[in-house]
Design brief:
The protein is α/β, with parallel strands linked by helices. It is 35% helix and 14% strand. An eight-stranded mixed β-sheet has the order 1-2-4-3-5-6-7-8, with helices on both faces.
């Protein structure tokens, strides 16, 4: 094999497996070098087909970049859907264990939503380069990433230059920051030690309280036996979406737990069916 051919094949592999990380805040005043977006472009992307930004979960404290990140993106890519894995700012391990944000603010709201909105902006601005439709861009989030995805859909209602996604898939999401079923670890990580008891801030970040009438279509999935995020989180969001007349589908499985992503081993055969349901839903979400 010639050196030239090897180099060409090497860069094709980089593109296929998503190793071209983009540092989203490079060249700006925001000091967030850790925030990256990794593209997984479908082999023959069609401008008419949707694409997806993937937000891994991790309680806003860390990221499950494997099960809820890279594997999700490759699964989407294999199904002809271009995907972009977002590594957004989170609390981090040291602040989680030491509570150092009592002294230093660290990463907390609104850092996370700023990162996702920046990702949406970047993908839309570079849509022609990636061969995708800038108006068919959704966000898929898992656990705390599901909260982030849905929060982005609730922001900027009516904006001409919207940074909202065109659709959302929230998989076993954290939803409320004020209800008794709130996921406390995610709440502390998102709000910070000094603000975690701020009732106004809690309410402002409770998804069930701020669904706009023009909210993008939503697919909502969770399991009733979820031992991490109380299943009633998704029920609260389902009720709020229904009350506002928002186009959505809610799938609640009896078994499957939490954190299964697109794994072929985690969860149960019942909950793993969500992948096929998502693909079916995506075919007609805007119709």
């Amino acid at each position: 094999m010639s050196c030239r051919l090897f180099i060409i094949l090497f860069f094709i592999c980089l593109r296929s497996f998503g190793l071209e990380k983009v540092r989203l805040w490079a060249g700006t005043d925001v000091r967030a070098r850790s925030v990256t977006l990794t593209p997984y472009i479908a082999s023959a992307p069609l401008p008419s087909e949707p694409s997806v930004i993937v937000c891994p979960g991790g309680s806003y404290s860390w990221h499950d970049m494997k099960t809820e990140g890279a594997k999700v993106a490759r699964w989407l890519q294999e199904n002809g859907i271009s995907a972009f894995v977002l590594k957004y700012r989170v609390q981090g391990y040291v602040p989680f264990f030491t509570h150092s944000r009592f002294l230093f603010s660290g990463h907390q709201h609104p850092d996370m939503i700023a990162d996702l909105q920046r990702a949406i902006q970047y993908v839309r601005e570079n849509a022609s380069e990636y061969g995708i439709n800038p108006h068919q861009l959704g966000v898929m989030g898992f656990s705390a990433g599901g909260h982030l995805a849905m929060y982005s859909a609730e922001q900027g209602a009516g904006d001409v230059e919207s940074l909202r996604p065109d659709f959302v898939a929230a998989i076993y999401p954290v939803v409320s920051m004020s209800h008794s079923v709130s996921h406390k670890r995610s709440r502390r990580a998102l709000l910070g030690e000094r603000r975690k008891n701020d009732r106004v801030l809690r309410d402002s970040l409770s998804l069930e309280k701020h669904v706009p009438v023009d909210c993008p279509p939503v697919l909502l999935v969770n399991c009733k036996d979820d031992p991490v995020v109380n299943y009633r989180n998704s029920e609260l969001l389902d009720s709020a979406l229904t009350a506002q007349g928002v186009s959505h589908r809610y799938i609640q499985y009896r078994t499957g737990g939490h954190g299964f992503g697109v794994s072929k081993k985690k969860g149960t055969p019942e909950c793993r069916a969500w992948k096929d349901e998502f693909l079916k839903w995506l075919e007609g979400y805007g119709k």
